[in-house]
Design brief:
alpha/beta, D-Maltodextrin-Binding Protein, domain 2, ten-stranded mixed sheet, two-stranded antiparallel ribbon
Length: about 280
């Protein structure tokens, strides 16, 4: 009797393993539900230099580049890039890719990074501060410095006792009606601020648009506080491995073209040694 029970148990175990194996294969085949007939992009409708509904941002242009290489049209799901963005777009399967996501973020699966950039300090090109290389420089004492509240450079100002004369700008705003970065650059040009601290792609873009020459200083020499440089990836759903691999292949094959596009928008690009990447390099 015991032998029969043992034999039956073994048979059930084998059957269970077979079912699980078959289910696992089926799941692997169906988990990647990316729409291959179009490049479906999640994006903010008013968030230059990244994206807008007129498709003028560099992430819009990058999406067009990917769509061209894939041979499919680009379709958008528009949603303000604030709380609930991923939940209401990518996770709701209304789209298949977020064009810009910091590497290591838990809400998405990151592809390989397609660029690396840093926070920057912006000053007038004729300013005596134009050769300052880090926030600990004594020449910044008492200066009026613009900073977006809650960003890593705000911590640097605090560590260097520079908050007293700093001018804070809001982090979370409706970009359809407010543009803190653009306002900060305007105040640097007018002289209301001596300097401003911004995420490089944003600061570089508005500095490039300014009619007054501005110096954009990468913050790559800080000795304390949070890191200033970040790798930026495409964000996809957590279980879509093949889609991630396909995008990684596109990044590798067209990296120079991607860098050229970003440099055209004034994005400061860094290599892994924190050196600026120039056009064509």
């Amino acid at each position: 009797m015991a032998a029969k029970v043992e034999s039956l148990a073994r048979a059930l175990a084998l059957l269970t393993a077979f079912v699980l194996c078959e289910y696992g294969d089926l799941r692997a085949q169906t988990a990647d539900l990316v729409d291959r007939s179009a490049l479906r992009v999640c994006a903010d409708p008013a968030n230059l230099p990244f994206s807008n509904k007129k498709r003028e941002g560099f992430e819009n242009k990058l999406a067009e580049l990917l769509g061209e290489k894939l041979g499919v049209p680009v379709l958008y799901t528009w949603f303000p890039q604030a709380m609930g963005f991923v939940r209401n777009t990518l996770r709701a399967r209304k789209c298949d890719i977020i064009m810009g996501f910091s590497q290591g973020h838990e809400l998405v699966q990151n592809t390989n990074h397609y660029y690396r950039s840093t926070y920057v300090m912006i000053v007038p090109a004729a300013s005596p501060l134009k050769d300052v290389e880090h926030i600990g420089d004594a020449r910044l004492k008492g200066r009026r410095i613009g900073v977006v509240a809650g960003t890593p450079p705000a911590t640097l100002l605090a560590l260097n006792d520079l908050l007293e004369t700093a001018r804070p700008f809001q982090l979370m705003v409706d970009r359809r009606f407010e543009s803190p970065a653009e306002k900060m650059v305007e105040e640097i040009v007018s002289g209301a601020l001596d300097a401003g601290l911004l995420w490089g792609p944003i600061g570089g873009y508005y500095a490039k648009k300014s009619k007054t020459p501005l110096a954009v200083i990468p913050l790559t020499k800080e000795k304390q506080g949070p890191r200033m440089a970040y790798r930026i990836t495409f964000g996809v759903r957590l279980n879509e491995k093949e889609w991630k691999r396909q995008l990684n292949r596109l990044i590798a094959k067209h990296q120079d073209e991607i860098h050229g596009l970003l440099l055209g928008y004034g994005v400061p690009l860094l290599d892994e040694q924190n050196k600026l990447i120039a056009r064509g390099k």
